[in-house]
Write a structure and sequence with these properties.
It is a single chain. The chain has 250 residues and is an alpha+beta fold. Helices cover 15% and strands 31% of the residues. It has four helices and twelve strands. The chain has a seven-stranded antiparallel beta sheet with strand order 1-9-5-12-4-2-3. A three-stranded antiparallel beta sheet has the order 8-7-10, with no helix packed on it. Strand 2 and strand 3 form a beta hairpin. It is globular. The protein starts with 14 loop residues before the first helix and ends in a 10-residue tail after the last strand.
Length: 250
């Protein structure tokens, strides 16, 4: 069994320079807490909600390995406002497998949305991204809770392959890993050969991406032993200026 490559964690003081210079950064859980202004243990009450994710029925590879919920928000000047439930949509240019169709997922639970740590998380990331894009103070945010499991022997976190999301910034939190191997994160320069490979293992470790500058993917997961159930839970937040992605939007 291959030994996972540890993440190249960025010290909090170097976060802005790392993102400006390289288009991506990885934060350890304590650094996530420092970014958000609260101890990362405050996020623990959110974790049980990953046990209640409905199946994703839109997978075009025929798989049954993904469960998810999805909700949208507008974050402006530190205020997080949920918007009426809407479909998730991406153009084919960014998602060749699932692009071009409206995908309606069950919304994230009201208990999660009411949690102060949840709103603090979304607002803190918006503040960070406005430091990078000082012309933007209003962000259109899509939140995705994912569980990828190994019930059929293999699960694919990114069945579309290496990709960009068509937004400005992406935040990928590793929430939990249980009984699996694989799930290696890969980040590539969108315009050159540079890249990094590592495996997120610590709960609430965070990958931050400048979506215009890098391409990312995660490798498939498998159970550590035949017949053993396993899963990988993540929270993916995308931030876009100007509006949500939708058919006909610019």
């Amino acid at each position: 069994m291959a030994v996972p490559q540890p993440p190249p964690f960025t010290p909090p003081a170097a976060l802005l320079s790392q993102l400006r210079g390289h288009g991506h950064a990885v934060l350890a859980p304590d650094a996530v807490g420092a970014l958000c202004g609260f101890d990362v243990s405050a996020l623990a009450p959110l974790v049980p909600s990953w046990e209640d994710l409905p199946a994703d029925h839109y997978l075009r590879d025929g798989g049954r390995y993904r469960k998810r919920r999805h909700s949208c928000f507008i974050v402006e000047q530190g205020k997080v406002e949920p918007v009426p439930h809407r479909a998730h949509w991406q153009p084919v240019d960014y998602n060749a497998l699932h692009g071009g169709m409206e995908r309606w997922f069950k919304p994230i639970s009201k208990a999660v949305l009411a949690n102060d740590a949840w709103t603090g998380l979304l607002a803190s990331l918006a503040h960070l991204f406005s430091e990078l894009r000082q012309d933007v103070d209003r962000w259109f945010v899509e939140a995705h809770q994912f569980r990828i499991d190994t019930a059929d022997g293999i699960g694919r976190p990114t069945p579309e392959g290496a990709h960009r999301d068509g937004v400005d910034f992406v935040a990928v939190f590793l929430v939990a890993r249980h009984g699996i191997t694989g799930g290696e994160t890969r980040v590539f320069d969108a315009n050159g050969p540079a890249g990094q490979r590592f495996t997120l293992e610590a709960p609430w470790s965070l990958l931050l991406l400048d979506d215009a500058r890098v391409i990312h993917e995660s490798t498939p997961i498998q159970p550590v032993a035949a017949g053993m159930a396993g899963h990988r839970d993540t929270l993916v937040l995308t931030y876009r200026a100007g509006g949500f992605q939708s058919p006909g939007a610019s």
